[in-house]
Amino acid sequence: MQNAKLQRKVKKLLVFFCIICLLLNSSQSVFAKIEVNNYPSKIEINKEFEIDVVLSNLTDPTHFLSIALHKNSGDPYFGQTQKGDNWIEADDSNCKSFPGVTISEGSWSGKLKGKINYNEKDFDNSLGNYILKVFKYTDSCNKSDSNDLTVELFDSNPPLTATPVPTNTPGPTSVPTSTPTNTSVPTANSKSQNSPTVYMSPTIKQTVPTITYIKSNNNLVASENASSGAFLGETSDPTVTVEEEKHSSAASSAKNSFPIFAFLIGSGVVLIGTAAVLSARQIKNNQKENKS
Question: Looking at the structure, do residues 42 and 146 belong to the same domain, yes or no?
Fold first, then answer.
């Protein structure tokens, strides 16, 4: 029985001790204060800057301080804090690598130096407005931070970015290749399938006898001169060909003009007949009128 009562008392004491520890830690976290003064509104890339820091209402003897920036709430932090001759990048895993301060009578005040470089971890090298904070770490790496401070990152000598110049890369050139063509050599027995067959037909020319009138004893005598030795396709005398052409042209002109003359004569006869019939009717009508 006595052992059971003793165990109960020990448990109560342990619970009471834990509650006291929690109250002490919570009071420290509630009343601990981090103030940042005299901070620059503009921070130049690759240039050192300095801020004033005031810590108050602290009980732990040693704390570690870090300068950090981020673009928006929730973004990873970046930045460097000077410790002696070294620059320590913002990283929670190395909290004790930052410059440490010793608390005297629950407070501390001093200066911190920081710097921002291109190509830092979690920095996308873009300029503009950022949020600056000071983080305080305990010896067990518990972290608290200051209020948000808005600063502007700028660069008076921004790095030159090389603009790629397009180069004309010669492409492969096509070399024309000659394609051999099959050339058929004509033989004595070969015949071209595409060439038309030409049939030679003899030209038939008829020799028209020329009639020549000869005056004999004051009488005209017609004599027919046929060209001797004239065969089909031959012309023995150029005079015969000329006279043949004259006779053929005269005959064709007479044939062409005959229908025209016949039409004109027929039309005239019809008109005259019509006029005669109309005149006869008119005379009969006039006679009837006179009798009446």
Answer: yes
120/115 Cα distance (integer angstroms): 11
Which residue's entry shows tokens 């020329």? 210
| Pair (114, 56) in one structural domain | yes
| pLDDT mean over 251-276 | 76
Expressed as residue numbers, the domain containing 209 is 203-242
Residue 229 included in any domain: yes
Instruction: Give φ, ψ of 240 to 5 degrees.
Output: -60, -40
Q: How many CB atoms lie within 10 A of CB 73?
A: 7
Name the residue with higher pLDDT: 179 or 276.
276
The mean per-residue pLDDT over the stretch 118-138 comes to 94
Q: What is the pTM of this model?
A: 0.46
DSSP 104: B
DSSP for 140-156 reads: T--EEE---EEEEEE-S
The pLDDT value given to residue 260: 77
Domain count, the chain: 2
Q: How far is CA 18 from CA 24, 123, 198, 257, 261, in A?
A: 10, 42, 129, 148, 150
Specify the CATH number for the domain of residue 54.
2.60.40.10
Question: Both 45 and 138 in a single domain?
Answer: yes
